[in-house]
Amino acid sequence: MSRVYNFSAGPAVLPEEVLREAADEMRDYRGCGMSVMEMSHRSKVYDTIIKEAEADLRELMNIPDNYKVLFLQGGASQQFAAIPMNLMKNRKAGYIVTGQWAKKAFQEAKMYGEAVELASSADETFSYIPDCSDLDIPDDLDYVYICENNTIYGTKFKELPNTKGHLLVSDVSSCFLSEPVDVTKYGVIYGGVQKNIGPAGVVIVIIREDLISDDVLPGTPTMLKYKTQADADSLYNTPPCYGIYICGKVFKWIKNMGGLEAMKKHNEEKAKILYDFLDESKLFKGTVRKEDRSLMNVPFVTGDADLDAKFVAEAKAAGFENLKGHRTVGGMRASIYNAMPKEGVEALVAFMKKFEQENA
Length: 360
Ligand SMILES: *Cc1c(COP(=O)(O)O)cnc(C)c1O
Description:
With 360 residues, this protein is α/β, with parallel strands linked by helices. The protein is built from 9 helices and 14 strands. The strands form 4 sheets. It has a 7-stranded mixed beta sheet with strand order 2-10-9-8-5-3-4. A 3-stranded antiparallel beta sheet has the order 11-12-14. The longest helix is centred in the C-terminal third of the chain and has 22 residues. The model has no long low-confidence stretch (mean pLDDT 97). The site of pyridoxal-5'-phosphate has 12 residues, from α3.
């Protein structure tokens, strides 16, 4: 068996220790004679798995008691609808459009009320984060929405927008657990786990309790009401049991690594290796304004589409997978999530140096 360095944007690399542990427990979970995939979500064994996962996540993110943690299905995209359905009491919300995912959420919200574009970086192909320190924010907005790390374009909000007292809702799919966060600054933090936490099929929603109520838009499906899910502790119906179990293992892995402070340091070190090289390279260059660079997703180009394709093909042959940029932007993108080891980034940079010499 040989494992590649997997730079996929998602589903993405998971810690090898977690995969090994899951493999060991695959057919017989800790002596209960069955796989986690095969057991009732109402069983005592599973109850411990989901409760421990929640407790570990709470500890890692320092989630206050007045926030609920929900493990749901439907991916991040389902939340594009669930958020307005649950939170758009005045039928008006503000969106900061910093990439495709934010744009999709913005467009979805328009189906439920007035969605106002508060700022956008579409003018420069989403290669930067707009200044959000003093936006013109209408008083009657129900919330301000951001996509905190833009997976496709490789930008990250280094400072949260000044919402002028409005509720902040944030999609953190691709930066979840990559660094410490102050949960109290948000009304809702949510993300699909397949970027940085676990297998596709789970979305985690962290929501302030006072935002959970029966006062939702008419026609909101029972399953999409946060109250339904919160009242049932994420067990209203069958949850994505196996996915949650893997997430729980990843939470423990992060705790063992030293928690989110340590994760941030690890991620900064890795990103620096790649960005430093991009800054000095004569062939490759990063596509994002420096101060807005993501620690997780690093897009870069040579400036020549044929050479980009050659690079991606040769990299693949050398064991560096999934470096092709998103189909809408071209070039390359290295996603270097929590589970990407530092050696993976070092090896990639060594390969890029060699490619640069050969193609000078
Ligand atoms: C991948 C991604 C999504 C979409 O996630 P799905 O789970 O496929 O719906 C949304 N937002 C961000 C920031 C993403 O990276």
